[in-house]
Amino acid sequence: MPNHVKNIIESSEVVIQSLLNDEGFVDFNNVLKMPEILENTASGSITPHAKGVFKGVITEEYLLKNEYTQKQVAEIMLSVQAKKETGYYNWYEWKIKNWDTKWNAYDQALEKNTPTSVTFDTAWAHPLKIIEALSLKFPDEKITAKFADEDLGSNCGTYTIQNGNMLEQDIAPSWSEQSEQDKKKWTAFAFKIKHPDEDPKEYGYDDNWDYIDD
Prior knowledge:
By secondary structure, this protein is an alpha+beta fold. 34% of the residues lie in helices and 17% in strands.
C-alpha cells in the first residue's frame, strides 16, 4: 500500500466546483482527462512484452505460440494500441506523468468540504501537475494547496499558485536535510493536516513536538 498524502485545496468557488464530479467528489479527469483507451490497460509484467511488439521485436503470433493466454495477448495488444494513440502503454504511466500520482483522489470526506475548499488523499505524492493545470484554466484565480504525508514531517508543505506561477511556497526539505527545529516545525504542520481533530499526545508527541518513545 502507498503512503497516503492528505491534500487541502482552497480557491474561489468556481475553481473548486470545477474539480467536482456530479456526485460532489474531486475527479482529476475534470482537469486532465485520461484517454479512454488507457482505462482497461494493465501495468506491470505485460509492459516489456508490449514494448517488444511496439518495437517490432516480438509478434502477436509469437506470443500466441509461447504459452501466453488469449487474455494476456489481448492485454499486450491493447497496450501497444494505447502507446500508438497516446504515447503511453498503460494507465499507470499516464497518471504518474500527468497527475503526479497513480490514482485519482480518494478518501474524500464531503462533510469537510466547503464551497471554497476540498480535502482528499492521494497515493505517495501531492498532485502538483493537477493544480498547475487547474491554475492555468483559471488564470485570474489564486489557488492555495496544503499537503502532508502520513510519514509526518516529510513530503509536506504549502504553496499559492496563480496562472501556473508560484506566488508563495514553503515545502519541507527531505527529512535527512532538516535540522531538529525543522523537524519539529514540519511534524507539527503535517499533524494538523493529517489529524486535525486529534491530540498529538495520543500519537506520542509532547508539547515541543518531541517524540516520546515508551
